[in-house]
Amino acid sequence: MKKIRTRFAPSPTGYLHVGSLRTALYCYLFAKHNEGDFVLRIEDTDRARYVEGSIENLVKILDFMGLEYNEGVSADNDGKIVQKGNFGPYMQSERLEIYKKYVDELIENGFAYYCFCSKGRLDEMRKNQQLQKQAPMYDGKCQNLSKEEIQKLLDKKTPYVVRLKVPKEGFVEFKDLVYGKIRIENKTIDDQVIMKSDGFPTYHLANVVDDHLMEISHVIRGEEWLPSTPKHILLYKAFGWEAPEFAHLPLLLNSDKSKLSKRQGDVAVEDFLKLGYLPEALLNFVLLLGWNPKTEEEIFSLDEMIKRFDLSGVNKAGSIFNTEKLDWINGMYIRKMDLDELTKLCVPFLIEAKLIEQIDEKYKIKNSGEIIDFEYIKKVIALERERMKKISEIGESVKFIFSDELDYEKELLIWKKMTVEDVKNNLQLVFEELKNLDENNFQSDKLLEILNNLVEKNELKRGEVFWPLRVALTGLKGSPGPFEIAEVLGKAKVLKRIEFAIEKL
Ligand code: GLU
What is the pLDDT of residues 438-463, one digit of tens each? Predict the structure, then answer.
């Protein structure tokens, strides 16, 4: 059987769209599942869209996401772009000679022709077609030029493009592995440009030549390329090559079903990483944007994905990009993560939020000047871990731990229909109880036991004690439980915060 080879073929236009990350992931999974090769090819023939540094950025992100490829463009240890593999170069701008050779071959065999039409003529033609409500199409004028006429125009250095000669009869038919059988009448296909006047190939030509020469067995790409595929099939036919298999992936949509685009918010993988989404979570999320495991499962490690992925699980319908789901998946990964690792990821966000500052191996709480160590920060993170959705939120959610004075409305201290007096009394009771407690007994389970006894002894309801205490310690409507927080804060701060609350009332 033919070796399975897939390729991810991005254009270096500045950032990696999440949709492209999904394409890369599916290409990777399909190759790995079938013990095949996954190739990274850079499609940089559109010089106008090229953005400096974007190839480096792309390679770095794929690496960070853990999508390893066997072949193509990559970076060495110093971040310098290199290429590896037997089918190179893998950068289309370095393959111009190759494309030229194949274009000449098509002209020679009568499958393509020079077109010298000026922009003025083409614009005019298009305008007329629009007026007559016809689809814009080249009218084939230059197909009729004689050999001598062509030579004359070439000698005069008249600018030209090369167009594919699309048969006017018949149809193109192919089976897409996701969308099924597709049949297009040839007469609806334009004599597309395959080589531009600057000598660069168009996407269509370069893509077909490279997929053939690089022995790609499966072309997996976004649905937006589906309309181009008949043109590609015609090119394969003209060259006398066997076309690869095609699998197009459904569009990514906003919740209002419009196409997901940069204008509406974050779509770049870089943005999601900056917001503190974990690479594994992001991969897991994009996996489910268009692929159905046919079970209720939602969390998949990369190894699990490789084992399970198949193209028959890819949906045809567009997939809604649901950020809440992404948050949920990210939360699942955060909870599974090693606490040390998680804390390391959180520290820069705490520094950025100006809560702490690094001093050699230790940290200083900005507000109080107190010196803390990594172990302490770990305890703080452990507090929030259950509720965390993304790492970038950590500063906001643990601000109360590092603050010297909390800022909240005193009404927040009141639980249900309690009177201010009762709240004050209860906080006073807690204060007295904790005041005599040894610092070493300031552990959440111990505190729970002690305060449970206090509730019982005074015939109170738990909420009447625990709610005011929790608010006194955090100043927040929602937070982790009061005992865990009290343990992290330590005796002195707990007493100080209770006192502060009593004074407020
Ligand atoms: N260079 C195209 C892109 O940027 C690749 C399309 C394809 O995979 O054929 O998406």
Answer: 988 899 999 999 999 999 999 999 99
Q: Cite the active site residues.
A: 262
pLDDT tens, residue by residue, 196-231: 999 999 999 999 999 999 999 999 999 999 999 999
Identify whether the C-beta of residue 14 lies closer than 8 Å to the C-beta of residue 54.
yes
Gyration radius of the chain's alpha carbons: 32
Verdict on whether the full-model pTM lies above 0.70: yes
**Ligand 1 center–CA 171 separation, angstroms:** 24
Structure tokens at 152: 């004359």
Task: Output the pLDDT for position 265.
Answer: 66
CA of 43 to the centre of ligand 1 (A): 7
Query: Which range has the worst mean pLDDT, 58-67, 253-262, 383-392?
Result: 253-262
Which is the closest atom of ligand 1 to the Cα of 211? 9
Kindly list the structural domains of the chain, giving each domain's residue range(s) and its CATH number in brackets, ordered by start. Answer: 5-93+252-320 (3.40.50.620), 95-249 (3.40.50.620), 337-402 (1.10.8.70), 410-504 (1.10.10.350)
Task: Please choose from 43, 236, 246 the residue to mutate so as to test ligand 1's pocket, defined by most ligand atoms within 8 A of CB.
Answer: 43
Contacts of 212 (CB under 8 A, 6+ apart): 236, 239, 241, 244
